[in-house]
Amino acid sequence: MAEKKTTTKKAAAPAKAAEAKKATVKKAAAPKKAALVVNAENAGFKAGDVYQALAAAEKALTVKEIAKAAKISEEETLLGLGWLFKEGKLAAADEKITLA
């Protein structure tokens, strides 16, 4: 003879309630940021964007100001600045950067 298993609905009810609670508490996923691709080509393009922004401004700018003028992120701005500093095309003084 096979044994009968008995189940209680009380044990199942709290599990369903917990699942329902989890479903209502879910947060909307934050939009993903585009990943910054670091390679020679991209760094060169960002350096060009930074150079053009500084040339158009004709004065010393902060990193935030350069990023806003070039319409790129601060990370991309720093990538371009590094390229231009290495080439000796920039000068920095008092947290501001200008063309050398």
Notable features of this structure?
single chain; 100 residues; 4 helices; 56% helix
Mean residue pLDDT: 82
Decide which structural class fits the backbone.
Answer: mainly alpha
Oligomeric assembly: single chain
Cα separation of the termini: 94 Å
Query: Unreliable stretches, pLDDT < 50, 5 or more residues?
Result: none
Shape: rod-shaped
Please explain how this structure is put together:
A two-stranded antiparallel sheet has the order 1-2. A hairpin with a 2-residue loop joins β1 and β2 (96-99). Helices cover 56% and strands 8% of the residues. It is mostly helical and 100 residues long. The chain is rod-shaped, with a radius of gyration of 28 Å. The model has no long low-confidence stretch (mean pLDDT 82).
Topology (SSEs and partners):
Blueprint: H1 9-25, H2 40-57, H3 63-70, H4 74-86, E1 90-93, E2 96-99
Antiparallel strand pairs: 1-2
Give a brief rundown of this model.
By secondary structure, this protein is mainly alpha-helical. It has 4 helices and 2 strands; from the N terminus they run ααααββ.
